[in-house]
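in:
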């Protein structure tokens, strides 16, 4: 079978091509890498507004009387803390405490939830959830995979809500962060609009059926030519400036949420898979440490799989994500230190050269939206 036959396309593929996007295989989908330049797109989102097609993301509906109970057991965060109309960032974990996936859960009603999962994990997540529905005989719970039936558009940037407000009667500025409303947008009813995103800049994400995705995409781009289309290259640099993790690089089934410095999404007051393992790990403190760092040398950029070494040239860790920050105008990176001993200095090993790094707290930049 040819590769072209196994790579999926979002419903907006032809639109991206017409706009001159460079298309690449990303998580099994043809996705726009960039339209003009990743720098232009990055700065537009930071200063004005941009739109992303993120329809490759998985979209599940989980419904049934016991659906919340199941999610509570399979994830680390506490779903009972959010109300209808709210969303929550959390992670699915395996029996050893490793991260199966990180996801956002939307509470549509008491017994109905929308789960936005990573594209690369769609089938794995579906099997994991369905296996537990069967195991615990939750005959009332139904998992519906709408991944290829619905699209997801992200409109991001400090002026994004102002620009698209004319397309809806929903007061976008009144939607709180990690809240959502369902209403009319661009003349189409029952559209879910959420104050979420992966860039750190103000914005919304719109969940829409494929048959209406092109209309909404085109209508947004027609708004006084103020919103530009953006690709996954700028999405990556934008998320890294905020220190947001990317599954497959910063997160995996061999990394626990404690190791990933995501303890804030672990609620030990409830019961969930691998709770005791994570409690023990947190108590003992014996685990690889997540770090975030910058490189003062503007000519050096950290990349995934670059090694981290100490003053004695001993390998003590590795880089999981790295990029040039257009805002800081220097290289930034995420990674893990695997050495349990006290370390005085950490260096990046690039092309047989020892580059000093400076560890910093996240986010790398502070944004006023």
């Amino acid at each position: 079978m040819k590769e072209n036959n196994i790579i999926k396309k979002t419903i907006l593929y032809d639109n991206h091509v017409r706009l001159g996007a460079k298309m690449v295989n990303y998580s099994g989908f043809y996705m726009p890498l960039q339209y003009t330049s990743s720098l232009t797109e990055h700065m537009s989102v930071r200063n004005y507004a941009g739109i992303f097609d993120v329809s490759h993301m998985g979209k599940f509906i989980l419904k049934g009387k016991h659906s919340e109970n199941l999610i509570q057991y399979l994830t680390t965060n506490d779903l009972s803390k959010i109300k209808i109309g709210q969303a929550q960032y959390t992670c699915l974990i395996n029996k050893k405490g490793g991260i199966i996936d990180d996801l956002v859960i939307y509470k549509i009603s008491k017994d109905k939830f929308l789960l936005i999962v990573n594209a690369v994990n769609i089938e794995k997540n579906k099997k994991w959830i369905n296996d537990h529905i069967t195991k615990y005989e939750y005959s009332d719970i139904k998992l519906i995979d709408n991944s290829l039936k619905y699209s997801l558009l992200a409109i991001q940037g400090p002026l994004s809500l102002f620009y698209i407000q004319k397309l809806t009667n929903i007061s976008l500025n009144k939607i709180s962060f990690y809240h959502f409303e369902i209403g009319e947008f661009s003349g189409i009813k029952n559209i879910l609009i959420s104050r979420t995103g992966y860039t750190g800049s103000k914005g919304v994400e719109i969940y829409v059926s494929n048959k209406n995705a092109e209309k909404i995409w085109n209508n947004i781009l027609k708004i006084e030519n103020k919103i530009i289309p953006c690709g996954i290259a700028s999405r990556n640099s934008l998320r890294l400036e905020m220190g947001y993790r990317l599954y497959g690089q910063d997160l995996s089934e061999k990394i626990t949420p404690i190791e990933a410095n995501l303890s804030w999404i672990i609620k030990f007051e409830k019961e969930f898979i691998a709770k005791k393992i994570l409690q023990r790990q947190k108590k003992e403190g014996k685990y690889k440490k997540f770090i975030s760092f910058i490189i003062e040398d503007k000519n050096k950029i950290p990349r995934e799989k670059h090694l981290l070494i100490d003053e004695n040239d001993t390998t003590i860790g590795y880089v999981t994500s790295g990029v040039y920050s257009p805002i800081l105008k220097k290289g930034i990176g995420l990674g893990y230190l695997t050495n349990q001993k006290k370390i005085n200095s950490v260096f990046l090993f690039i092309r047989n050269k020892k580059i000093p790094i400076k560890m910093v707290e996240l986010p790398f930049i502070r944004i006023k939206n």
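note: The two ends are 48 Å apart (CA to CA).
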